[in-house]
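mind reviewing these tokens:
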Amino acid sequence: MIITVDGSEYNVEVADNFFSRMRGLSFRDCLKCDGMLFIFPYKRCWSMWMLGMRFGIDIIWIGDDWKIADCSKNISRPKNILESLKVYKPCEPVRYV
């Protein structure tokens, strides 16, 4: 799916149900597109973690207006289970991540 955020286009994989959001990018060796778009049923300060991640990422929190609401940059691949349990949250409620 192609999306436009803050005027830039991205080719993303969509995670729009409970199971695809739960799995996310865990246990993959790489991305096959620009990223993954998590679509949630309503606005909230949705939290993310790095459990099972094999590469680093940026987490971009997107508002209903498709503008960037917040960003967690350069999150490294976790070195151990404790690091993978760290939770990342936006500064305001969003529907897209």
User: Anything to note?
Assistant: Residues 18-23 form the longest helix (6 residues). The chain has a mean pLDDT of 94. The CA atoms of residues 14 and 37 lie 5 Å apart. The first strand starts at residue 2 and ends at 5.
